[in-house]
Automatic annotation (TrEMBL):
<keyword id="KW-0472">Membrane</keyword>
<dbReference type="InterPro" id="IPR032808">
    <property type="entry name" value="DoxX"/>
</dbReference>
<keyword id="KW-1133">Transmembrane helix</keyword>
<dbReference type="Pfam" id="PF07681">
    <property type="entry name" value="DoxX"/>
</dbReference>
<protein>
    <recommendedName>
        <fullName>DoxX family protein</fullName>
    </recommendedName>
</protein>
<feature type="transmembrane region" description="Helical">
    <location>
        <begin position="6"/>
        <end position="24"/>
    </location>
</feature>
<feature type="transmembrane region" description="Helical">
    <location>
        <begin position="94"/>
        <end position="114"/>
    </location>
</feature>
<keyword id="KW-0812">Transmembrane</keyword>
<feature type="transmembrane region" description="Helical">
    <location>
        <begin position="121"/>
        <end position="139"/>
    </location>
</feature>
């Protein structure tokens, strides 16, 4: 593939690193004190309680709401791990799949909010593109260590 300036594999690495920075920003901008006290989960519980799809309400009530502190830590540190993993290219295919799943969960929960839908759809699209383009070929620990060869 001929491109301007970088190779195709390097452009996909740029896309992967950019996605990692986006995840890192999702982690960084959280008010950690409020978030880890359950504030983020409390906010999401209000959205889930009025969700138009009953399975979403039920799933949130059974899985997330009874464990607000655990879920707050799980979400925050998943975003941090995704960001760091994608930036350095470590366990990249796993991070790309996990990121796409997390974005789809966010998308389904926030189905009524067009701004959130756009961000989560775009991040999921970049994840799938990075996965299918084998974006860990360039500028990654996976490539340096010989993990996940094509």
């Amino acid at each position: 593939m001929h491109t301007i300036w970088l190779s195709g594999a390097e452009w996909f690495a740029v896309l992967r690193i950019g996605l990692g920075l986006w995840w890192l920003e999702s982690w960084r901008h959280k008010d950690k004190k409020t978030w880890f006290a359950g504030g983020g989960i409390t906010w999401a519980a209000g959205i889930a309680a009025e969700h138009r799809w009953p399975p979403v309400r039920t799933s949130f009530e059974r899985l997330v709401k009874p464990r607000p502190r655990l879920m707050a830590y799980l979400v925050a540190y998943a975003e941090l791990a995704l960001g760091l993993g994608l930036i350095v290219g470590f366990l990249t295919p796993i991070a790309l799949v996990a990121g796409a799943v997390l974005n789809l969960i966010y998308l389904v929960l926030m189905i009524h909010d067009w701004a959130e839908q756009g961000q989560n759809l775009m991040m999921a699209l970049v994840s799938v593109t990075g996965l299918l383009a084998v974006s860990w070929q360039s500028w990654s620990l996976d490539g340096a260590l010989g993990l996940f060869l094509r």
